[in-house]
């Protein structure tokens, strides 16, 4: 993950605030610079354009989510399947509280961009790295790169769709639904015993 100076971090912080306010599609670099108290020239000295700034903002948001999930995991010393459940719940909770930002995280940078070449994915994003490490721990060597990519895209699509339904108030968050989805996810990867463990764990976990 790229390191930025204080001005760069300020720009990223204001960008995240603007994404919450107007959505990433309507983000104006001129307006952003004004709200950050600087010229557009100063902004462009740190970021080549909107795409680079959005990538930096996505990495920052992803790092916050990854740190929150890791803090919960550290308190519980979870098994691999418990890690997947905890990570998913942190993201779904974020959707409920911060729809615009989560919509941006999943939509602005399609998951396909994170995969480079055919041998291994890019793990530079803390959230992506945590997700992939969790999947690796869960399925081990039984899932090759292409299968891993397929499972990751399916999981991301489900999380975004379910998260947006929750955020819009169309449906409430239900542990049973999430448990069933995690079970189906594990079964598709051939981890039937893990799927049963996930289902039992999450259905019985207190609300």
Describe it.
The protein has helices at 6-22, 29-35, 40-44, 50-76, 80-97, 99-107, 126-139, 145-168, 175-188, 192-204, and strands spanning 115-116, 120-121. By secondary structure, it is an all-alpha fold. Strand 1 (115-116) and strand 2 form a beta hairpin. Helix 1 (6-22) crosses helix 4, helix 5 packs antiparallel against helix 7 (126-139) and helix 9 packs antiparallel against helix 10. The longest helix has 27 residues, at 50-76. It is globular, with a radius of gyration of 18 Å.
Structural class by helix and strand composition: mainly alpha
Low-confidence stretches: 114-119
Distance between the termini: 35 Å
Query: How many β-strand runs?
Result: 2
Spatial strand arrangement across the major sheet: 1-2
* Number of H- or I-type helical stretches: 10
Q: Rough shape?
A: globular
- Rounded mean pLDDT is 80
Beta-strand content? under 5%
Largest sheet: 2 strands, antiparallel
Number of domains: 1
- Secondary-structure element order, as H and E? HHHHHHEEHHHH
Q: What is the subunit organization of this protein?
A: single chain
Q: Work out the radius of gyration.
A: 18 Å
**What is the helix fraction of residues, given as a range?**
over 70%
Topology:
Elements: H1 6-22, H2 29-35, H3 40-44, H4 50-76, H5 80-97, H6 99-107, E1 115-116, E2 120-121, H7 126-139, H8 145-168, H9 175-188, H10 192-204
Helix pairs in contact: 1-4, 1-6, 4-5, 4-7, 5-6, 5-7, 5-8, 6-8, 9-10
């Amino acid at each position: 993950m790229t390191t930025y100076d204080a001005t760069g971090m300020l720009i990223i912080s204001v960008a995240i605030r603007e994404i919450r306010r107007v959505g990433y599609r309507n983000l104006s670099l001129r307006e952003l610079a004004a709200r950050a108290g600087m010229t557009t020239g100063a902004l462009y000295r740190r970021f080549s354009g909107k795409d680079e700034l959005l990538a930096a903002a996505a990495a920052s948001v992803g790092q916050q989510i990854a740190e929150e999930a890791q803090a919960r995991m550290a308190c519980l010393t979870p098994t691999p399947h418990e890690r997947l459940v905890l990570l998913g719940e942190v993201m779904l909770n974020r959707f409920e509280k911060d729809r615009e930002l989560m919509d941006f995280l999943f939509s602005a940078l399609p998951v396909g961009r994170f995969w480079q070449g055919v041998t291994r994915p890019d793990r530079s994003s803390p959230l992506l790295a945590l997700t992939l490490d969790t999947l690796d721990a869960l399925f081990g060597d039984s899932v090759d790169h292409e299968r891993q990519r397929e499972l990751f895209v399916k999981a991301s699509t489900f999380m975004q769709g379910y998260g947006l339904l929750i955020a819009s108030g169309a449906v409430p968050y239900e542990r049973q639904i999430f448990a069933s989805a995690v079970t189906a996810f594990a079964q598709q990867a051939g981890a039937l015993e893990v799927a049963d463990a996930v289902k039992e764990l999450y259905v019985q976990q207190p609300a």
